[in-house]
Amino acid sequence: MAEATGDEQAPPTKARPAAKRTPQKTAAAGTASSTRTPRTRSTAAKPRTPKTAAARAAAAKAPAAPETPATPVEPVVAAPEETTVAAPAQIAAPPAPAAPAAPAAPAAPAAPVTQDTVPAAAPDPRPTVLSLHGLRKRYGDTVAVDDVSLDIKEGSFYGIVGPNGAGKTTTLSIATGLLRPDEGRVVVHGVDAWAEPVRAKHVIGVLPDKLRLFDRLTGAQFLHYAGTLRGLNAKTVRARTADLAAAFGIEDALERLVADYSAGMTKKIALAAAMIHSPRLLVLDEPFESVDPVSAANVVDILQRYTAAGGTVVVSSHGMDMIQRVCDSVAIIVRGRVLASGTIDQVRGEQTLEERFVELAGGRKAAEGMEWLHSFSD
């Protein structure tokens, strides 16, 4: 023990050993050797280190709390931020091919073909040579022609067909000025046939049904008479007579009396007389009746060349095949009325002209009750 000095010294203060600081485990150190998937950043606040020495010393003495093993956390995939993305500009479609021009609005559908109508045709720009308007003709109680109206264009080869007694001959007789109608009007090349009959007949050539020829004249004399009656001079008549005789094959018969002609030759000389003055309109009633096929072919050829040059032919016939073959237009007359008229194709439709004619005329009638005809008299 040391001696005490005069002044009593205070006992020395025992030096406090420096506190050992236990380094805190950082998140990086704690996971350095771990093979676990790195955890995503936690939003929990980090523990703050005490700022004063005393606080640090107190914290050093406190036993470190055992580290709670971290619960494995599945990595959180952040949801993609919902952003408004402008819709991508629409890729312009390749330009569509130009649409074909819209067709013109179709005309109102044509009325079905009935006994009074046929499909409407496009307007014919050719001038009208013969117009029949509302023709009527009665014989007592019999109506021969009942409101017949037709317009026949220039250059047409027009056929008129119908059963026996239908009114074909009566209609053509009215059209040519041979018979006066009870009602109606006939205009020939712009001339009223009944108001100015001479002018109208000047442009018409007629082959009537019932031939009334001067049969005591020779063929040459008959043609000379027909030509001079139409105002032709003798020289022109002789030249045209020779041409017509050659065309119809009757040169050898010109010096014979017409009374000695066959039915076919009579038709030919009458047709030559109708054509000698070069009319604009020929109206021929049954011109091919009693004419042989070769002569008929020659007549058709002459008439077709005539229409090609601007003439107009109106012909009546019972031969449907002939009409269908040579005519461009047709009218079907039954019981005095026009049941169908127009071009050949319009009138017949999908049928032949004969089938269409039979249909409009009432159809075929079955022959029954004539078994006696099959028993034979011998």
TrEMBL record:
InterPro entries assigned: AAA+_ATPase, ABC_transporter-like_ATP-bd, ABC_transporter_ATP-binding, P-loop_NTPase
Places the protein is found: Cell membrane
Bias type Low complexity, positions: 26-72, 101-123
Record keywords, A-Z: Antibiotic resistance, ATP-binding, Nucleotide-binding, Transport
One Pfam family here: ABC_tran
Location, primary (coarse class): membrane
Gene Ontology MF, one: ATP binding
Domain ABC transporter span(s) in chain numbering: 130-360
Region (Disordered): 1-72, 94-126
PANTHER family, per database record: ABC TRANSPORTER ATP-BINDING PROTEIN, DOXORUBICIN RESISTANCE ATP-BINDING PROTEIN DRRA
The protein's name: ABC transporter ATP-binding protein
Organism, scientific name: Leifsonia williamsii
